[in-house]
Amino acid sequence: MKATTDHIIVTSDERFNGTMQYGTLTLYLEQQEWTKVKNVKRKLEVFAVADNVADKISPGEMVFVHFDAMLLATPFDVDEKTCYKVCCGHKHHMGDVYAVERDGKIVPLFGWALVEPKDETLPERIVNGIVRLEESRKSETQGTVKYIAEHDTNPKIEPGTKVMFHKDNAFLNDFNGEMLYTMKIDQIQGAIE
Fold it and tell me: Which range of residues forms the domain containing residue 47?
């Protein structure tokens, strides 16, 4: 089996869509409820790939995907496996495949960067007449690149580079227990020296 251009097919041991029986038919329903998002697996096994991505991903490898890829996709069965078609990205879509796990290492693909959030401390302050004590949190605008896809930027951004980005690009995802921001490389606004 082969996937269509710019796509891969992943398998899962569960469906991410609700079902409803209507006579002998099983209807699959989209689950747009945000409570379901935390239950969606983001690391799945590759079942088939398109020819134009076969040099980057192989069947049997594990990939990290955006949760929307599962919530919005229609499941189908092949060889008693539940499958989903996932876009790797093209000029009209940024893609839902962040990275592949290869030899125990996370390898970002298709222009994605995985950034470790910077720890920051907010000082004691008064907000709306209430004293807020000093608090620690993860920055939503700065971090250190942990993994990055092959790219050609100037200045060169590589693992270990401290970067800044817009808070709308700060999406935390779990990569084998590491909570990292996922963003396209071109969403990084600059390197911090």
Answer: 1-109
